[in-house]
Structure formats: C-alpha cells, structure tokens
Amino acid sequence: MKKSTEIQSLPIINISDGSEIGKVRSLVVNPEKGSVDFLTVEHEDWQISVRAIPFKKVVGIGEYAVTVEHENAVIDLNEIPIANSLVNKKIRVADARLMTRKGQMIGEIVEFHVDDESGAIRTLEVKSKSDSYYLDSPHVLTWGKDIVIVKEDAAEYFRETLVEMDDVPTPQEAVVMQEAAATQADGLKDIESRQMELLVGRQTAEDIFSLEGELLVPKGSELTRADIQSVKEAGPSVFVELTMNIR
Questions:
Q1: Strand partners, 121
Q2: With b meaning 16 or more CB within 10 Å and e meaning fewer, what string describes 166-199?
C-alpha cells in the first residue's frame, strides 16, 4: 500500500525511453468504487488542458517515481467524459470529515492508503479528538466531497496500527464476514433479551457517555428500554461501562 501523499508529486517516468513526462498532481477518486482511477499530470507545457493517467496504465509506484510503459498512457480529460466527470466531483478523501449514517461525527480523515496494484482505497487514517486511528475501507458507505459516511459501528473497528494489505478484507470478503456475523447475531438475541430484562428499572451510579462524549444516561437515572438501546447502539465498550455502573 502507498499513502496518498507518497504518490503525489512523484515524477512519472516513461519506461520505453527513460524520459520524465511530468509529475503526479493529484489522485482522482471514483466514489462509486472507492478507488483511485486516475492520476492527474503536472507538466509545464500542459497549462490549458488537464491530462491524466488511468491507474490501470500504471506499471508501478516506487519510492522515487511512477512508471508507465509509454507516453501514450497520458490522456486528455476533455476527450474522456467519464474521467473529466470524476475530476470535477473533487472527491478528496483526505481532510474529509468522518460521519456515521445516523449523523454522529467520529473524526477527520488525515490520510488514506491506496493499493498500488489496483488503486483501491484500503485504509483511512482518522484523527478522532487527540488520537489517530486506522479504519478499513469496507466500513465506508459513501465517499463524499467533504464528508465520508461510514457504518454505525465503524468506531468500534478503529485500530491503532496499520496492517499490511493482505490482512485487510476485500469488499467481497467483508460481505461474507458480515453474513457470518449476522448468523451469529441471531443466536445472541435470547441473551440480549435477558440482559434487557435484568437492566430495566436499575439506577445508574455514574453518568454514561458515548465515545464522542455525548451524555446518554445521567447519573441516578432509572433505566428504560430506550436508555439501554441507545447505550447498545453507542458501542460495546459503552454498554460494558453501563453494566459496571448500576445499582
């Protein structure tokens, strides 16, 4: 994997004659696929039109350069409407805010990591409060211009370390994992029902907050089913905090 900032500004080398044909100016993200589809090219002689290289035409992304087989890998975006449309969408990813589908703001994306073979965005580096975490791309629902929408439980999958590309599930693998989790969840319904019955009517010994610092249940509250459900939705760690602070 490569950081987006490791790709930007790299020289682009034409393998066929060893010449430099420009530098990488920006990464063009396809929000439908969650991938980098094009690299726009900066060249002093191309000031009027915007030119780019389809990611599939990239031979390799090394420490010092991006390589292509031939100069004809560079295309004029005015001649490729789909590519031009992607550029105009200006999906930047880095600096976008990270929000759950129910409107909880859980951080800001400071960097993203790209599969240097396929262009797929694999991992997001997220700043949440004063800490930084990594989140894998299968948790993303929508790649927006200013806001990236993620699944409701995304914060529960924040990691403190970056894993290698092979350890990150593909979208297809993620679907299989979700289906398996759903099957397991069916078997836990009875347990959750019993948990609910044991907690309803108990009082909280401390204030219970969400991971974002929102007060969910004030100290001394008599727990209702709605209270317990809101705590469950806030995440497992918050639910454990509730169970440890009741009387």
A1: 114
A2: eebeeeeeeeeeeeeeeeeeeeeeeeeeeeeeeb
